[in-house]
Amino acid sequence: MLLRQGSRVAVVSPASAAKAELVESGVERLRGFGYEPVVMPHALARGPLYYAGTAEQRVADLHAAFADASIEGVLCTRGGWGSAELLPLLDRELICANPKVFVGYSDHTSLHTWFWNECGMRTFYAPMVAADWSKDDGVDERTWRAAIEGHGAWNVGAEDGLRVLRNGSAEGRLLGGCLAILEAGLGTPWSLKLEEPTVLFVEDIGTKPYQWDRMLQHLKFAGMMKNVRGVVLGDMSANVQPNEMELLEAACVHALRDFEGPITIGLQSGHVSTRNRSVPLGAWVAMKEAEMKEVAG
User: Which residues form a coiled coil (predicted)?
Assistant: First the structure.
């Protein structure tokens, strides 16, 4: 389940409304990258409120994309808020019978979680159409080609921002996403299920040190860390100013003080300003020192 040159990809907005000019720019860049984008009927909708159409319209676009055998990938325009509204409306039988490449991050963590819980479907925490593809330097081509097209082995390391907070090695299923969305799912039927050895990747935006501390501890108290073997924290530049970085790192280490596995920080995926790295959620990975790579598993 990968993309290739010439793949038709559906452009959808499952959450907040996207700016039409940014979607257009991203679509043009995707064409230049070798894909055939198909902008779904409500992808450019605006309203009600801040949404890209009603929940029913947004889920209709998703269902249509998954039902269309000619479409190989589903790419979100932007995040914001709204994907969680779709979870009770999703057609499990339709989606599980028609797995496709699904790309998005931030608010779409709820969709990644649903696809994994319900279908065991591998998805991609990776650049979005309006948020990243619209920029000249928004997409890291190496990790996109490796993760989403299967060209070369997928791996990330120091050149992708990773630094060691606690040394060690671990293997497991790479799962996670936006920390705030994962935490919000706790106690609902759509909480992320970590039922096998896991490498947990979490990142966020606008989140203060004490909030990272609180949310990571909430995951622990809720039992989500039971099968986690390694933790990969994202790039923190969208959360705090440089002079607060030491405090944020210390807060994360404090929250994870009872966790015995390796911890790295700084992976430039998700809420980053440039060269957004693509992360294959559901892949089996190995982490050692400041490196993580996909391995057979």
Answer: none
